[in-house]
Amino acid sequence: MSLYLWIIPLLPLTGAAINGLLGKRFPKAVVNAIALGATASAFAYALYVAYRFMGLPADQIPHIERYATWMTAGSFTAEFGIYLDQLSLVMLLVVTGVGFLIHIYSVGYMEHEGGYYRYFAYLNIFMFFMLTLILANNYLLMFVGWEGVGLASYLLIGFWFLKDSAANAGKKAFITNRVGDFGFLIALFLLIKHFGTLQYEAVFKALSAYPVEASAGLLTAIGVLMMVGASGKSAQIPLYVWLPDAMEGPTPVSALIHAATMVTAGVYMIARSNAVFNRAPIALMIVAVIGTLTAIFAASIGILQTDIKKVLAYSTISQLGYMFMGCGVAAYGAGIFHLMTHAFFKALLFLSAGAIIHGLGGQQDMRHMGGLRKYMPKTFWCMTIATFTIAGFPPLAAFFSKDEILWATWASGNHVLWLIGLIAAAMTSFYMFRLWFMTFFGEYRGAPAEDFHHDHDSHDVHSGHGTPHESPMVMIFPLMILAVLSFVGGWVGVPSILGGSDHFDRFLAPVFRNQVPVEMKLEVVSKEELAAQHEEGSTELLFMGISVGAAALGFLGAWFLYYKRTDLPAKMAVAAGGLYTFVLDKYKVDEFYGAAVIRPIVLASTNILWKGIDATLIDGAVDESAAGARDISDGMRHMQSGNIRSYAGWVAFGAAVVIAFMVWKGVR
Amino acid sequence: MVPLSYYLVLSAILFACGVAGFLIKRNIITIFMSIELMLNAVNLTFVAFAAELKMLSGHVFVFFVMVVAAAEAAVGLAIIIAVFRTRETLNVDRVNLLKL
């Protein structure tokens, strides 16, 4: 039985091809129809596939479709094929669903922008590569998608390429990702070397013969290298630096690529490779530690940012950290659960921020906002739901997913990581409510109406804006859908302790359970037994209480500092002095990378590679050989005088020499 | 009987005269005559050897050479006349349109 899954990625590709090649001549309505039609039909087909998937018997999952052999080299083959299991189905629905909503939103947001068709062509090509990434049935095809989304990300970050900062941000994202991809590629090479294949089912089957590595070995190396790749794509320490800069792109792009879908590719890849990580506890530990550190590190930077999109960017990095934290304690289901709810609420946050920016004529600085509740009530309510969700208040979506991660971390015995995660959760709540209070409450601090037209600092400059205004319905509609999803999205995974059925985890469990080696399987079972006991249950409830307490603490802190006593933050900044500026400068990580990595590379490239090898050695060799040929020819040129008599003279002379030689030698 | 070497020396002298004339002279008709002189020096060698070795092939070659020389003279003189009509000169150094 075939589900014709190849249709799904091909639809956006068709849209991209039509819009990209011919779109320049199309009116906007046609561009919209093609781009939205392609994405909508992909989403509709994905829903149909989900329906069919639910009816599949358990032994036909994963559902694998093979279309053609892509390449063969010796015993190594790679296929064009699709691997559909619970994990890729969740990703498929999230990507097509959220992607479709953001396409709708973009129609309103990009209305006044040049390069309209180009924007939608890029957006569609992103969808194509993202779907390739999640549906591929081997690592090599996944890598194609992996690189493709990087390309789409680069193109869309630098969408306003006439602006230097946007062009540079695009390059930064691309090059930083190359560093991560290097690690991922080496991991793939190791897989080929030791298993001779990159097909998922073959690799997983071969892996099932491996024991858990007590000390660092082959699988640990593969796992760590995969994590290097994931930390590039998913913006984790130490490669997170590109994501804040990526906010130079249009806001819907930030929502789709740099919050909801592409940056979660690393989490997906780790979850997909759980067969490797389950056998490499050291690599798993590294994933957990990096995730946790990123969560708190990025959250602490987010507290002081004043650009609304930068706050959300650091929030994204921090939330991605949570996902890795979940994966790192082998709670892949929790990580993917958070991935899904995060896609909803972070897309909602970004799109709401986009609505604010749009309504303010391109203003992104929160210090110039305030009191917007009056001007844009619909955006306010959507943003409110999103803020309460990300802060982790029940019964909203992120409460369940984040709490599941924290609980899994505690239950796995990593109490320090749990504590750090909890502090980061309080910070998350604090900076999100800070954003909420600064934008929607108090007095409007924006520039007077006539100054709106002269705001050249930000890129989303529209004309014809006076006072802040609500966005058109085409932008509000996706916000509302996402708000509903952010509200109820977590209910699919209500843990059993709260009377739910933990449906989401159970749904995903086959993906992860089948790969667990024997020793760990026992452990999992015993953990479930423990969870069934009442004592453990009350602990879980207690920890939920602590999480909510942390969220409330963040809320109260933000309320006090940014609503009640708005004079205090400035005084505290002065009191904190150097620490304040240090955090405000994002811990000077960019400067550190600039001095430690970029400057030496630029210097070495300039002096050794460019001036030394290229200009001197290669150019020198070419130039010298050309000059040598010219000099030799210059000498020879004089023989060819064009004077026939001299030629004849030389012929006669030559003949005389030959005769003399023959006479002298006595040749007969 | 005249020894073979006499013929050969005479032939060599005639040939050298032809070469020298070809190289030194500028008048195209003189150059043409020098070429004929060289051809006939070769002819002399051929017949001398043919008589000495009592073989016919030398004579045959001489006939070939004479035929070629006659054809060459016909074509060459036609070219010379054409050149003179257009350039009004017989000096080879001044017929140099193809030179750079």
Description:
The complex is a heterodimer of chains A (668) and B (100). Chain A has helices at residues 7-22, 28-54, 86-109, 116-135, 139-157, 164-195, 200-207, 218-233, 242-245, 251-260, 265-272, 274-278, 281-302, 308-328, 332-359, 372-375, 377-391, 397-411, 415-440, 473-488, 503-513, 518-532, 534-564, 568-576, 578-584, 589-637, 644-665, and strands spanning 63-73, 76-84. Chain A has 668 residues and is mainly alpha-helical. Chain B is mostly helical. Chain B has three helices and no strands. Chain B has helices at 4-24, 28-53, 57-87. In chain B, helix 1 packs antiparallel against helix 2 and helix 2 (28-53) packs antiparallel against helix 3 (57-87). The A-B interface holds A 642, 644-645, 648-649, 652 and B 19, 22-23, 92, 96, 98-100.
Count interface residues per chain for the largest interface.
Answer: A-B, 6 and 8 residues
Please count the beta strands of chain A (DSSP E, at least 2 residues each): 2
User: Total number of helical segments of chain B?
Assistant: 3
Shape designation of chain A: globular
Helical amount of chain B: over 70%
The major beta sheet of chain A can be summarized as: 2 strands, antiparallel
Secondary-structure element order of chain A, N to C: HHEEHHHHHHHHHHHHHHHHHHHHHHHHH
User: How big is the Rg of chain A?
Assistant: 30 Å
Looking across the biggest beta sheet of chain A, what order are the strands in?
A: 1-2
